[in-house]
Amino acid sequence: MTDDPKASHSSAAESADTSQEVAIELPSRNHLADWDIITAMMKTSRLPGLDLKDIIHILYLQEAHVKHIEPVVRTDLLELFLNTATQLRQEERDWRWDIAFHGTLRENIPSIIEHGFKLPSRDASISGHRSRFLVNWGPGIYCSSYATYSYSYGHNWENGIHRDGVMLDPEATVGIFICAVIRGIPYTCAQRSCRRYSQLVPNYDSHVNPSLHEWIIFDEKRIIPLCIMWVKKRIDDVFFSNHYDLQPFCGNSVSVTRTKKLLAASEESKYTYQRYRKKRTCFQDGAEANSEMTERIRQLGSR
Asked: Which stretches of the chain score pLDDT less than 70?
């Protein structure tokens, strides 16, 4: 289910937070290049002009507070992703990327940053990664266009995620990756075939579940983590009742201020996961390389 994030109830949530605004510090110079490239990836996605402030605004409308946000994109993985997009474009196939979300447990975050997303296997000795959930729609990498849908996957559950399930850590702040993903031509799975998809359906590039909330990617080079945000739900319900579609330019002046505050990490100690990027951060590649990468992203997105 989706709703319009510009609904009238937004004004109350905004006014409640306005009084808490504080002075804005300048972002860390070292990571300005990271945010420039992440911003370029968002703005040249299938939702042209999308920005972090829009994502943060949508979450606030749904009573979800973004506590912290950190860049995690690795330039070597980004290069592979862009090479894949370029190759698909040359083959006249659907190469454009979407912005998606992937919620996960805290202990999984370092590996995802260091190695990227990995396809799951029921035999952990083969891939080194085993999904903790049933692969209902095929053995791929699961993500969603809704951060609120991905939120539940950042919690520990007893006997799986479902309406009657028991969340073991309801007070936890959840890590949700913001990702770029090349879905290509998606196959819409049938409910009657749930848990029967052993591989990608031929002649398609990805799967989508019947509710359209879950996207399943079968190529590790088609999905890349850009940054991670830490989200705390401000209501008691286990699940979000609605999921709002992302809309470029929906963020207002209050969300702009919130975003600037989140990006104003002038102390490196505020960033927790930088060592897992293995020195493949954008600023360490140098200004010229960053400029070329950003321009390549913009040229791809403009075609």
From this structure: 1-30, 121-134, 160, 162-164, 235-236, 238, 265-269, 279, 282-287, 303
268 located within any domain = yes
Q: Does residue 94 lie in a domain region?
A: yes
Tally of domains in the chain: 1
C-alpha angle 42-149-264 in degrees, rounded to nearest 5: 45
pLDDT at 207: 98
Q: What is the CATH number of the domain that holds 284?
A: 3.90.228.10
Q: Which pTM value belongs to this model?
A: 0.86
